[in-house]
Amino acid sequence: LTSVCVFDKQHSRINKNIANGTLLIYYQTIFDIHEVYARKLRKTFLETDFGLNDFKEKYRSMTEKNNNDLLNRIEEFRRASKLGQNKETVKQWAAKIRNELQELYQFKKDY
Known about the structure:
mainly alpha
């Protein structure tokens, strides 16, 4: 089992007319939060002893919890940063998420 986090450059959501450094960091941080949770899920997969009889239930439970945690974290970031308008909060979150990525480095997947 694995978890993949992918960015599709063809479907970028940033309007080039309003793009600025803070907004780019904001969207990069959202992507990085997704990557943190992809790594957390990979870690969970590797640490779990899947049995033949409970594989589906364990998988469903793990992915559901991970996805709920991810959505809550994204919402927390959006709210705290006022959708990217609070420059200092965006910078603080970016640094915090970079640290989390580093802590989960061994679960990084090169695509």
